Amino acid sequence: MISVAVVLAACGDDGSAAGDESSSTGATDASTTEASAASSESESSEASTLAPADSSSDTGFDPPEPMCGNGFVEDGEECDDANDEDEDSCNNTCQLPCGIAWSAAHLGPTQDSDIYGLRVGVDGEDRAVAIGYQRQVDVDPKGNPTIGEATALVVAFDAEGGERWSQVLAERGLAVAPGDVAVDDAGNAYVAVAVEQATGGRDVHVLALDGVDGSTLWTHEVVEPAADGDDEADAIALTPDGDVVLVATVRVADMNDDVYVRRIAAADGTEVWTSTFDGMAAGEFSTDNGGPVVVGDDGSVFTFVQPYVDFSTIRVTLLAYAADGGDPLWTFTPEQGGSVQEFFPVGVAVGDDGSVYVGYERLTSQVEFWLAKLDADGGELWEFDREHFIVPGVGEDWRLTGIAFAPDRGPVAFGNYFTSEGDDGWAEVWLAQLDPEAEIRCETTHQETSGGLLPPTLFINGGTVGVDGGPVLVGELIDDPESALWIGRFRAD
């Protein structure tokens, strides 16, 4: 049984994370590419629009009295364009469109520990719960490290980014790999993890955690059928009536992995139904992989998986299930030209009208990715690639790491933008809020502050949308030599 360590309002004990100092602002006009962002009590950060930089407001004269609309960026402002147009690149409260509202960082138990955020969910009061990876590393005075086992870290935040509680899911002497998290309206969290077994292999566990303190309400174990299979917890989502849908990669025989889609009763953790998917076998192999999952308003289940074809061909396929499981109602497998035919599922989302959005990528010399919209029967309505999001003059090193859907607004695409200064480089947040036809409503990058000469690296691994449709993203903040679980809440466009 997984052991549990719960800490209320916990944080690392080895100092502050990058960005702990208060934000600084300078006198620049509204088209600046860097601006101070709102923060939680102990966090601060920088937001950047995708417009060209302009330092024309650096006049050498003293600025006028602080106020929004005077053309100078002052404390509490992210921009100031000196006009009263509320729908332009700087609104009448001197905030950037879809800029960051707050960010927070949860540190590891030691400065040398490995820690990062992986997935995040939000409840009905806009409170976030993130799941991530944590492995404690202790270094003695002679520099000799003691490396602990991998654990799954769950951290709950309030609506302003303050930490409420954290929990470490651990098994003595064995690894616990984090998978995904979903949160109901009351704040209860459902997490999927893969637990190493003493007899070999890994089994998938789903835990229900109380929203008040993170204590375990029940545990569901997927222990079939191969005793020593290296099973993976891929994704988790909630049905409209509150049950849990799990997607897992399960070893069913030697060199044969299937995708399990299982509905679990939220009340007590019992199995409701299980559907399995076995892709096209090639020779002795049939190593299929699960992927992201989403549930529609009618209970329909959509999961974007990776069937194995052969050594040089790996497809991505969307599986659509009815609310009561069974065989897929329909499938969708996108096609792209090129010599490399290895694709990876990134995300899936459902729109207000039942349409489905899928995001996927191909790793070649340069990462390629696509975002497609399907109708309720799996017919493709449109598809856009990475060029749709590239802003001239900003760069082309972009990566999609997830998608979501904001009700009454449209899809949200997010990931990373990689930039550099001389021989040094770092990663920033990239975020695009779109309408249902993929017209970009608002696109931004975000960079955290650092005490060093260069910005820290911020890798984004997962995200969702808050109550108002504003994106909530989670990932890893690396401010050498320390890393942290990072979470950020962005405003809706």
Summarize this, please?
By secondary structure, the chain is mostly beta strands. It has strands at residues 3-8, 35-37, 45-49, 100-107, 114-122, 128-135, 137-139, 145-147, 151-157, 163-170, 176-183, 189-196, 202-209, 216-222, 232-238, 244-253, 256-264, 271-277, 286-287, 293-295, 301-305, 308-310, 313-314, 317-322, 325-332, 341-350, 356-362, 368-374, 380-385, 398-406, 410-421, 424-434, 440-448, 457-465, 471-479, 482-490.
Characteristic terms for this protein:
globular, six-stranded mixed sheet, 493 residues, mainly beta, 0% helix
Structure, described:
The protein has strands at residues 3-8, 35-37, 45-49, 100-107, 114-122, 128-135, 137-139, 145-147, 151-157, 163-170, 176-183, 189-196, 202-209, 216-222, 232-238, 244-253, 256-264, 271-277, 286-287, 293-295, 301-305, 308-310, 313-314, 317-322, 325-332, 341-350, 356-362, 368-374, 380-385, 398-406, 410-421, 424-434, 440-448, 457-465, 471-479, 482-490. The chain is mainly β and 493 residues long. The strands form eight sheets. A six-stranded antiparallel beta sheet has the order 2-3-33-32-31-30, with no helix packed on it. Strands 22-23-26-27-28-29 form a six-stranded mixed beta sheet, with no helix packed on it. Mean pLDDT is 85; it is low at 10-57.
